[in-house]
Amino acid sequence: MPVPALDVDAVIADPTTKIAICCGSGGVGKTTVSAALALRAAEAGRKVVVLTIDPAKRLAQSLGVGQLDNTPRRVHGFDPSNGGSLDAMMLDMKRTFDEVVLEHTTPEKADAILANPFYVALSSSFAGTQEYMAMERLGQLHAEAEATGSWDLIVVDTPPARSALDFLDAPEHLSSLLDGRFLRILLAPTKGPFRLMSAGFGLVSSALNKVLGSQILTDVHTFVSAFEALFGGFRQRAMETFALLSSEHTTFFVVAAPEHDALREAAFFVDRLSEEKMPLSGVIINRVHTSGVPLSAERALALAEDLGGRRPVEIEALRRHAALQRTIAREQLLLERFSATRPRVPRTLVQAMPSDVTDLASLRRVGSLLAGQDVAPGDDV
């Protein structure tokens, strides 16, 4: 059964598609694919903002923007005659958290929260916070786009989560932390039903003071007291964003490389998206090796052997060609196995670039490859 082709151009041209999310494991070129999709959509007439969570500065470099931060910045250097535009930004986890606090509480409580050491640690480095803030920022961008018309497509480069779609679980994890029983006990150990537990809590608190230090518990208690009013808001926004992700206005691209571990992660992503009934457009297999020379690895090595040490440049070229052919064969086998287990998932293959993607021209080339263009006959594996 032939693998269905992923028509990237049709997906990004669909006006009902307002959010495109690129997800996948780390190291597969997700940031580059996200930027290339955003550029291609902008040049086709969409008003696009691309949000990256990748702390490496590759996106800013390739888009020709000096620096990216939590504020969308305009990208120049392409023909906007179709009416398209492109903005780019990089998630600032702590700043996004700070903005949530400032927007949804009083100035007095905001000051107390922002200065609290427990909050500083939570907003800067706590596990899951980055993924949750990516969801928060996406919700903010969507609300702004709906209110102002600044953008009609948001492209999201998700965090390089190793397990399948950690960012979908992040709201639940953070909400569980902030609304957990332990923090509630800290908040009101002598109120309501906890009044009967006050003596026992005193013993627990005394033990924790010895282990953690009294200041840490004081900081946590102060933080939770000030943060209590925001608990419901976090949960509500998480539910709204999750609903948005599963709507007809969102689509997912799973990005992978033709490698065993990357395809295994991609399989988890595809399965999880299916379980959650999320709208999956298809899988993008990035950095696929190709060759336009119809010479097998065995024949190339035989020719190198026949040269008997003469003409070392030709020998080295033949050996490299043999290695490339073996890489192509290995990738073909892995892709066949992947598609055999998920035969109905659309797929597109992106050839490996000969050099790093560092500017708009090379991003444009990646976009063409994503759309199945500029691929010589027989080059697609």
Automatic annotation (TrEMBL):
Residues 18-288 form the ArsA/GET3 Anion-transporting ATPase-like domain. Gene3D superfamilies: P-loop containing nucleotide triphosphate hydrolases. It comes from the Bacteria. Pfam families: ArsA_ATPase (PF02374). This is ArsA/GET3 Anion-transporting ATPase-like domain-containing protein. It comes from Microlunatus ginsengisoli.
